[in-house]
Amino acid sequence: MNRCFYCGKGTVFGRSHTHHRGVAGGRWKKRAPKTNRTFKANLQRVSIIVDTEKIQVKLCTRCIKRIKKDIGDNKKPFLTLAHIKLSKPPKKEAESLQIAASA
Q: In sequence order, what are the beta bridge partners of 100?
């Protein structure tokens, strides 16, 4: 089974359940069927940099979103994505308002 490189999220097995209301009078003719199914994690293949080496791993989208949010907040992310450069931090709204006010 595939797993997220960082958090270990992977495929989970469960049951699908539909609800049948039955008939008037309160008695069910048939019980609601429950069938087995799998819940798969949304894994994406990305390149990361580990010890100055570029490797391809699978990360879940929640971990990718967390890395991008940390970069946007000027925090050090727990993994370094190869295709995102940290050299230019994004402008904050307050900085752009100060520039507009001074002009």
A: none
Q: With left for phi above 0 and alpha for psi between -120 and 50, is residue 5 left, alpha or beta?
A: alpha
- C-beta of residue 47 within 8 angstroms of C-beta of residue 83: yes
Q: pTM (2 decimals)?
A: 0.65
Residue with tokens 């000027």: 74
Q: What is the phi-psi region of residue 101: left when phi exceeds 0, alpha when psi lies from -120 to 50, beta otherwise?
A: alpha
For residues 78 and 67, the answer to whether their CB atoms sit within 8 Å is yes
Q: Which two tokens stand for residue 58?
A: 């699978």
Q: Where are the domains of the chain?
A: 12-86
Tens digit of each residue's pLDDT (9 = 90 or more) over 35-88: 899 999 999 999 999 888 999 999 999 999 999 999 999 999 999 988 876 545
